[in-house]
Amino acid sequence: MSAASALPETGYNFAYLDEGTKRMIRRAILKAVAVPGYQVPFAAREMPMPYGWGTGGVQVTAAILGASDVLKVIDQGADDTTNAVSIRRFFGRTAGVATTTRTCEASVIQTRHRIPETPLTEDQILVYQVPIPEPLRFLEPRETETRQLHALGEYGLMHVKLYEDIARHGHIATTYAYPVEVAGRYVMDPSPTPKFDNPKMDDCPALQLFGAGREKRIYAVPPYTRVRSLDFEDHPFRVQSFDRPCALCGAADVYLDEVVLDDAGGRMFVCSDTDHCEARRAAGHAGEQAA
Amino acid sequence: MTGEITGEMTGVSGPLLDVRGLTKRYGPRRACDGVGFTLHPGEVLAVVGESGSGKSTLLGLIAGEIAADAGTVSYRMRDGVTRELAALGAAERRALMRTDWGFVRQDATQGLRMAVSAGGNVGERLMGVGARHYGRIRAEALDWLARVEIDADRVDDPPTRFSGGMRQRLQIARNLVTAPRLVLMDEPTSGLDVSVQARLLDTIRGLVAELGLAVIIVTHDLAVARLLSHRVLVMRGGRVIETGLTDQVLDDPQAAYTQLLVASVLTA
């Protein structure tokens, strides 16, 4: 547990938002859970942070947070980057909840761009920050039309995008925000997580909630729901693979970040999930560059 | 031809398309005023008239893109049952539009996805009806590009890099890939220079004959009507003022306006 957060602020309601707003967001969340993958509109509020910094995720977190929850916030896999630190501190001060960087200790995990390597459990909720909730946006700019396409389940367009990838690059070159079909019905943007994480969404024991603040949409994947990445019969979905293990902890089956070390082309590949890496090193695992 | 006797041969089946009393008002103006006609399978109907005569509105009404104030459009579906289009659900109507119907637009940028490659444009309808095999979709796209005389090495170029004539060819390929029975064409040759027009018309005529398409082609160019159509419908001020076999109407126009229209064609 982190003791770094200052004392709780006074003058704010628990978790910043007023109870009426939280109730409105919870209603949207319930609807989203009832219709997996469907984008539910909600009256997103101004939050004390700029759009693009997780205003949607923060509102979802605020609506579901209870006094006994333990919160973890991830930014690109890391617990110690600006976005993660400031959101963790925000809830530490406005809700007074305990915060952690350990995946296994957290009950609510707000994330930007990654799903933890440690498998999630039924007792956990994963909240995604979503910049653009509409997977069809760049193919069909009209919102009225994309709603029709979702309503009628016309998802041929999504495959046009994948077709274009193969025609241009010889393989499906979409590596993040890779479209998925949820529970055999709605096609959903999994937020800009690397496609490496897509298989983790499938049949996941934890509830997954997605909040898009600027676009005022909430959607959800209930626990143990089928999440299928779209593909072609002759170009099946594949995740990225790395030709070396993490340089610090030696993990081979994880998503790696490339870190440039100097001006002479030196670089290392390390776990993107900092908590996973630290836990492995604490358990005695070591990579080739472990200090 | 196979020995199978179809409804079309025996004549028991009704028309493919039955349009009755289509009316559309914009304020006090009638863009389309009680227009009706029937279209049989394999028949090419030209709708001619000057700008503002209601030709394009008529096409929009038939396609269901403009809501009619009065009148009906009935279509004989692939299962042989004639149904009124307005009574179809949204899903059914859209499925019909992207499989059994085609719509070639005057402005190719409205009929194509300009940011998507030629192959993707042709393949979209196939993927829309559930094709999920990249190799087969691409082979089909290449086949159709060849049929509309677009070089195979342009398959990965977006239509933004195509000339006007090529864009119209691509639109045609994109529409015909699902083997529709009815194609609507709105001035497909306008804005193209004469030699390109001639080649495009040649392609259209060949495909229409080969595939037995029923076509409604809107044009202000009587030469296009003469070259492609079996029957002609002359419109003025939203009304049909003359209709008949193409040669009959163009060689022996009865209505004064049609006589004027025919007389105003420049002969080279």
3D structure, described in words:
The complex is a heterodimer of chains A (291) and B (268). Chain A has seven helices and twelve strands. With 291 residues, chain A is an alpha/beta fold. Chain A has a seven-stranded mixed beta sheet with strand order 1-9-8-5-4-2-3. A three-stranded antiparallel beta sheet of chain A has the order 7-6-10. In chain B, the strands form two sheets. In chain B, strands 6-7-8-3-9-10 form a six-stranded mixed beta sheet, with helices on both faces. Chain B is globular. The chains are: A alpha/beta (291), B alpha/beta (268).
Order of helices and strands of chain A: HEHEHEEEHHEEHEEEEEH
Mean pLDDT of chain B: 91
Q: Uncertain spans of chain A, ≥5 residues at pLDDT below 50? A: 1-5
Instruction: Tell me the fraction of residues in β-strands of chain A, as a range.
Output: 15-25%
Q: Helical segment tally of chain B?
A: 11
- H/I helix tally of chain A: 7
Give the spatial strand order of the biggest sheet of chain B: 6-7-8-3-9-10
Helical content band of chain A = 25-40%
Compute the gyration radius of chain B: what is it? 19 Å
- The number of distinct β-strands of chain A equals 12
Return the string of H and E elements of chain B. HEEEHEEHEHHHHEHEHEEHH
Structural class of chain A: alpha/beta
Radius of gyration of chain A: 19 Å
**Distance between termini of chain B?**
41 Å
- Work out the strand percent of chain B: 15-25%
Strand segment tally of chain B: 10
Mean of residue pLDDT values of chain A: 93
Helix content of chain B: 25-40%
Which consecutive residue ranges of chain B, at least 5 long each, have pLDDT under 50? 1-11
Biggest β-sheet of chain A, characterized? 7 strands, mixed
